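debug: dumping io for the single-chain case to check the tokenizer round-trip. Nothing else runs in this session.
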Amino acid sequence: MTAVRVFVPASIGNVGPGFDVLGVAVEGLGDVITLELTTSTSASIGVVSGRDAELIPRDPKKNCAAIAATSFLRRCGASHAAILGFERRLPLAGGLGSSAAASVAGAFAAAVATGCVLGADANAARPDVLAWIFEAALDGESAVAGRHLDNIAPMLLGGLCLALGVAPPRAVRLPVQGDWWLTVVSPALRVETKAARAVLPDQVERALFVKQMACTTGVVTAFATGDAALLRDSLHDHFAEPRRAPLIAGFAAVKAAALAAGALGASISGAGPTIFAVSPTKDVATAAAAAMGQAFLPVASEAHVGRIDSRGVRVV
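debug: decoded output
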């Protein structure tokens, strides 16, 4: 059978204050997964190459992409199994949605391979098929990080997305105006999502809740209207960032370096340790990347600069 090859972009979960509800896809950085249907009774993992390849589970029952692909195949009534290959660029446990990317790619590639999706990206899917893809991706993601849509939604739909709930999964793509540039800097550190969630309280005071709501609404409005000044005033995470910052060596210096270089705001991408910044121009975003990398030293890091990815997962 013909193999399907898909690209899924990196994503920034939370986008600062939007804990578990906001996510944005990053242009030019992501993973490629190849899927081939087989008459075998169970999924299998083929060639795995690229970043952190040696850490990817070869057991299909523990592999996010295999779990998601199998889940989609069962939901659509297919009797096939999947053989999956990986070309990786996203760091494992790095805060750019590595497990979500695998889950989205596995589910979407299975949808394309079975003919359930006839277009090149998930936005071409019928509503019922898109719902299956969301459910299957959540099945894969839950094996590592729990049932969260803040990475899955922008990876599937592209752009800036709002996750409204997981039972059933519901997310919408939000309007974006303006030419925003994203910088993501990933240090040679790992922060497991479950460990990063463990430092967060189950309840917060009303005053903090109100501040967080105001900032989240401000971020959404700033992107929708192209208001850089509003984004500068709103991209502040009062809930997760103060508690997760101690898990990331040099966080305060890296964030300060981004702002000093002209970035409008900076915070932790997802659970970390990747730190992201939003800038009004490519030149500022590039300068922020260099300054952030320097501030991380002596810890080595890798930086990427790109616009918001408008398409999400797609066939390549």
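debug: round-trip ok. Residues 261 and 288 are 5 Å apart (CA to CA).
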